[in-house]
Amino acid sequence: MVRHLKTKSDTTTGGVSSTSSSVAATVKDVIDTIRSRGDAAVREYSQKFDKWSPSSFKLSQSQIDAAIAACPKQIIDDIKAVQTNVRNFAQAQRESIRDFEVETQPGVFLGQKNVPISSVGAYIPGGRYPLLASAHMTILTAKVAGVQHVIGCTPPIAGQIPNGTVAAMALAGADEIFILGGVQAVAAMAVGTETIRKVDFIAGPGNAFVAEGKRQLFGEVGIDLFAGPTEILIVADDAADPFTVATDLLSQAEHGPDSPAVLITTSERVGHESMALVDELPKNLPTAALARTSWKDFGEVVVVDSLDEAWKLADEYAFEHVQIFTRRPREALEKMRNYGALFLGEKTCVSYGDKVIGTNHVLPTRKAARYTGGLWVGKFLRTVTYQEVTSESSSAELGRLCGRAARAENFEGHARSGDLRAHKYLNDEYGWIAESSSVEMKSSRL
Which of 153, 191, 293, 379 has the most Cβ atoms closer than 10 angstroms to its Cβ? Predict the structure, then answer.
């Protein structure tokens, strides 16, 4: 039995609404204009949206060095520590993906290789907050995968170069860094301009305009995910600490006014106490306005009779972040299927994943966890195959099989490629080969 102690506002859709026509139209206009007018259009949009029009959007090495030098030593040390965690996990992921070759029958070799994408554009948001962590998650992960050239784009903040973000991008291994934000950055990297090279793949989170830009450009370039507002779901039993529950719900609600935060619990007491604390704790929270709006419109508290019901309901939500505050948190690994990332036990929190622990924070939202995971090393690799047949008899047998299989689908041209090998290596006779040979002989006499 499911009982709602709090539901989201009747006027909201939990962040699942379709992109507004005005956003889509604006984004299309930006992309089309940059496609036709290149750098000039990029400059106009940057001035219009960010009040930013430097002589060069690309930072020189001296500007990058100055940005790093302007950061307090503790920030640089922390960036390096976090990037060590991200690099170690990404390298472990890369090592789990292997090339292989198998001989499936005598003289028939099939292989698989994992080839890095050649060029990647990483978008690092910077509207409300300088998201240093997104540099680690996109640029560094791409580099560990073996991507040769990574461009990083991030917007100015209040008309200034965001030194911390630039430091994170540089230390992550970006080959070029541009202070350029919004759709104009995504479009420039996707279509290419006189000064910004065209990339093969774009990664990184962003606002509704950036997300819509990636959606419209998908196909022309690859993308990591169709990202939506940040989501958090906590599954708790009666042993959970309501103060911790409330703190962690608010930690994600502060992302924006449309970030869903949901608690599913087997304890009505935990539910009520957590709700009361969510209302109380923002009093000394600098981002209280955002967190309160998000909680008011998109927050939910649901009481269920058992953890089995909780696991089932959590899978229906299929949220980006799922925290497990139960006596046996690892049970979720067995019982749940649909999530972007699991955070097991009260010693763990989503903020660790967002900022420092090493797993990637670019994760599926809006129920996309039903069919995809988040950004990881594998997203920057193309898994390709190759084939080689060295045995004449095996080639001939495959040719016979190919002929039959292709004619079952009425693909005569395919069938004849198989017939030819059976003819060459086992002397099979085919009327079309005899006819073609006769024509070839007559032609050679002329």
Answer: 153
Selecting among 231, 254, 321, 423, the annotated active-site residue is 321
Residue 15 has pLDDT above 60, yes or no: no
**Residue-wise pLDDT tens digits, 382-436:** 999 999 999 999 999 999 999 999 999 999 999 999 999 999 999 999 999 998 8
Instruction: Write the pLDDT tens digit of every residue in 100-151.
Output: 999 999 999 999 999 999 999 999 998 767 889 999 999 999 999 999 999 9
Q: Which residue in the list 320, 346, 361, 397 is annotated as catalytic?
A: 320
For residue 10, tell me if it sits in a domain: no
**Residues present in the chain in total:** 446
Which residues line the annotated binding site? 123, 184, 207, 230, 252, 255, 321, 354, 409, 414
**55 and 204: one domain?**
yes
User: Is the pLDDT reported for residue 437 higher than 80?
Assistant: no
| Distance (Å, whole) CA 97 – CA 357 | 22
The angle, 0 to 180 degrees and rounded to 10, between the axes of the packed helices 431-445 and 412-426 is 80
The neighbouring-strand residues paired with 114 are 383
pLDDT bin (cut points 50, 70, 90) of residue 17 is very low
Q: Domain range spanning residue 284?
A: 229-374
Cα–Cα distance measured from residue 173 to residue 139, given in angstroms and rounded to the nearest whole number:
7
What DSSP element (H or E) covers 313?
Answer: helix 307-317
- Is 320 a catalytic site residue? yes
* CB-count burial class (<10 Å; 0-12, 13-18, 19+) for 248: buried
Same domain, 214 and 123: yes
Classify residue 4: in a domain, yes or no: no
Q: Which of 6, 11, 12, 5 is nearest to 259 (CA)?
A: 12
How many domains does the chain fold into? Answer: 3
Give kind and range of the element (H or E) at residue 69.
Answer: helix 61-70
Judge if 178 and 294 occupy the same domain.
no
Residues 193-197: contacts with CB under 8 Å, at least 24 apart: 193/34, 193/38, 193/39, 193/42, 194/38, 194/39, 195/39, 195/56, 195/57, 195/58, 196/39, 196/42, 196/57, 196/58, 196/151, 197/119, 197/149, 197/151
